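Quick one: structure for this chain?
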Amino acid sequence: MSLLHVDHKEIARFADDKVNLPRDKANEYRAQARRLRERLETYLAEHPSFSLKRMQLAGSLAKGTALRSINDIDVACYVVGSDAPHDLKALLEYLADRLRKAFPNFSPDQVQPQHYCVTVSFRGSGLDVDVVPILYDGDPEWYGYLISQEDGSFLKTSIPLQLAFTQRRKEAQKTHFAQVVRLAKFWTRLMKAQHDGFRFKSFMVELIVAKLCDHGGDLSNYPEALQAFFTYIARSNLAEQIVFADYYAAGAVGAFTQPVKIIDPVNAANNVARLYTRAEADAIIDAALDAGDAIDAARRAPTKQETVRYWQKVLGSSFQV
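Got it. Here's what it folds into:
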């Protein structure tokens, strides 16, 4: 793809200016999560039978795919003990109570249960840390049961293995894998703002980019990589089952009947897209078709102004050259 007025460098520059979480902010947020973890470790050293065993940074900040618009930090907290409730509301109250014990310098109102997590609020930075409980029974690979933020169900997962899955793709295409994920997530966020009811969660975006990476896609040219992302969605009709063999054989995946089948790379029984309807999948496909058409039109546009106008259909009105 040869774009006369907007090329890879222009998209990369826009990403640095408008899409990516600045490095100093990312370091500040990671330090905040680290302080929580260290406080828990100190408390555990003094109270070895305490039921909260580990805190680990999770989500986009841990993966290096966070957007500039991030407003909270995801931290997984491993909870052990036969007295840990399996009822969602009771588990969150249980976690909040123990976090208050581990962090006595926080006032009770700074540690509050939410729908699927416990939010710890830092008064100095104004940033919230969402602590998500994982019921844990001692698995050496840190498998446990996480609360789904979509429907409140418990899903088997391993945060260290999820992070290692992403890290392998980042190492395969240094800088570019994470950047293309961020650009695709930025587009998704724009679609959600423009279309009521549009759904396309970040984990699905990341796994589609991972599939492109694993199948030889070159992500080093961002206009081409974005076009490949949109083209895959349109051509596959989101009907192709996406499976990764990092932690289980492809044959271990059972038959799924849902319209979209993107299988969790650390849990062969979990279809990440299980709650998406055909209509919601079609909305993603239509949006991808429009974005791909806009990139094609930008490639053929005779003027810089027209080229920018087409790219704004993909990256929003803040995109300027």
